[in-house]
Amino acid sequence: MGVKGMKTLVKESGTLEDVGFKNSAVIIDGPNLYYSLYFNSKPKLDQQHGGDYSAFRGLVCQFFSSLKSCNIKPLVLLDGGAEPMKNKTVETRLKDKLQKAKRLSESRADKWDNILPPLVKDVFIQVLQELQVEIQQCFGEADLTAALKANKKKCPVLSNDSDFYIFDVQEGFLSIDGFQWESVTQGAIPAQRYKISQFCRCFNVDEHHMPVFAALSGNDYSQLEKEDSKKLIGKYLKAQQPGGSSTSRQRAILKFLGEFRGKTPEEAVTAALQQVGRSKQEDLKLYLNSAQQYALKEPPRPNLPQWVIQEIQRGRLTSFVTSVVTQKSMTLTPLVEDFSQPSSYSASLRIRQFFYGLLLGTELCTEYDREGAEDMRPKQVTPVLAGVTPEELQKLELEHLNEVKLLPSDHKLSKENDEEKMKVHHFYSLLQRWRKRENLFSFSSFTTLVFELQTETLDGSNPGQKYLLCVSSELSPTWRVL
User: Fold this and answer.
1) Which residues contact 292 (CB under 8 A, 6 or more apart)?
2) 440 and 482 inside one domain
3) Please, are residues 140 and 81 in contact by the beta-carbon 8 Å criterion?
4) Core vs surface per residue 173-198: b (16+ CB within 10 A) or e
């Protein structure tokens, strides 16, 4: 999420407090952190040739070493996918990423064209696990959970997401951009702390009207049309405080809200819409729902087996599971590749079909992938079920998949078994190996498992030799021989 113009407005307001951050817990917005570390590194890390994961790993280790030296105890939260309400915003961002990836592939990108390599999130999680840093993967975007956790632990949030200027985080919000972790001074990290109470005093507005400000100013859920915005702020532009013209619109909206101190958010939204000539109930509902996204209440959990929920929260099972089960969709993030050729994701379609089969049975899944070089389009994908008996197929349902009775990892397949039975035994044996691996439920190991199941031996005298299609959690394929 994000509120347009908020970062500049806060900087101009002079309400940021310089602090030396130490001896505290902190809730870290994981995606914001790994994006910042990768994109802001000096020298710049590779984006055109698959990524520089070794250098990135070093940056992650250095960052958390700095926290440890200042007695800062982090909890890192990871996103679990976008909410359905944000489909339009997600679609726009995907198209923007597609164009950036194309420019990078053609070596004509500017300095703002950044595309995160496909394995960055996986490397980030692996390093945190090695460092024994506490992590939690959420079932939607991590913003709301971060605000709730921060208030519970009485500590600030570390992020670059401008929505944290709106959330009521009692101990404030630390911007990653202003968090000088490479310049530890006297056992503390120089940082700038934002508190909503100081900002609202500066602009003379009620704190509980800040979500209304976000909804009217423009966030991922709502935004006034250009002409409507002019109607709302026109009479307040002359009364604005001194500042850059880029924030005059936001300042005027705050001036408007200042007239509703002591009133409810519903009254403020209703008055704003009446002023621009919108009185329909659906308009009121849209902006109130947008403002409600900042209400500090526990987010709902998806309807998934308890063992799946636990593994997702631990970061050991891909968050794609949530999107596929709850929304019947999979978003394939654009890659830097040869755009004159079909999408690289087409090479691993069969693997994803097995993945969908385990999660959805026979229900269709909608994939969002590039078509040609210019557009991201939805495509209906039919799941594939394992070629086993109905009784054996029941054992592979998601509800019971972790209860499957496994054969010993050194089990030898009998040549007398028919082909289908051998596939089932092979599956169980491979599942045993998969579950014993350190990264227990990573999607890459799962897709390798499924491909092993479907791959024929290359040489009957050496049944262990196989070509395996190994994919990252983003399903980007590479080949290797075992």
Assistant:
1) 211
2) yes
3) yes
4) bbbbebbebeebeeebbebbbbbbeb
Residues 388-399 pLDDT 10s: 667 766 767 777
Check whether residue 149 and residue 242 sit in a common domain: no
Q: Return the CATH number at 33.
A: 3.40.50.1010
Shared-domain flag, residues 82 and 159 = yes
- Alpha carbon distances (Å) from 67 to 51, 158, 288, 459: 25, 12, 39, 53
Contact 383, 351 (CB under 8 A): no
Confidence bin at 406 (pLDDT 50/70/90): low
Helical residues (DSSP H) of 72-190, grouped into ranges: 87-105, 120-131, 143-153
pLDDT at 420 over 50: no
Residue 224 belongs to what domain range?
205-292
- Residue 36: burial class (beta carbons within 10 Å; 0-12, 13-18, 19+): buried
Inside any domain, residue 254? yes
Query: Residues 249, 5: contact at Cβ < 8 Å?
Result: yes
pLDDT tens digits, 176-205: 999 999 999 999 999 999 999 999 999 999
390 shares a domain with 288: no
Residue pair 136/80 in contact by the 8 Å Cβ criterion: no
First to last CA, the chain: 43
Note if the pTM is more than 0.85. Answer: no
**Distance between CA atoms of 141 and 121, rounded to whole angstroms?**
15
Q: Which of 49-58, 197-206, 231-240, 311-320 has the lowest mean pLDDT?
A: 231-240
Tell me the C-alpha distance between 66 and 191, whole Å.
13
**Same domain, residue pair 142 and 184:** yes
- The residue among 175 and 48 whose pLDDT is bigger is 175
Domain end point (choices 154, 184, 202): 202
pLDDT at 258: 93
